[in-house]
Amino acid sequence: MSWYPGIPVTFEAGFRWTARIAASGGWNSEWAGTLSLSGALGGTLLFTAAGSLGRGPAGSSGDARTEIVIVLGACTGGELSLPIRFAITGSDAGGVAVGAGAGFRLTW
Q: Which domain holds residue 94?
């Protein structure tokens, strides 16, 4: 999907349900849903965001992460950028964890 004027955006969604029969004869199931969004604003700002939520025999779990990339400069076959990342994950068994990061990225 493209978002006019001149803002390309991609959106994806998914859902999965699985079930298993245990050796004891009982069965258990789990489900998970995902969403993601990515795009660009002009040629200098890129963004991605994704998240998931699930429920299974071990309980609920979820995560969300995003990255914003500022393109600082480009030359023949290469690019210097500043990525900024944020993430949060959580589950019934493991609690909640939050993370953030930034740095320079050189791609060619």
A: 2-107
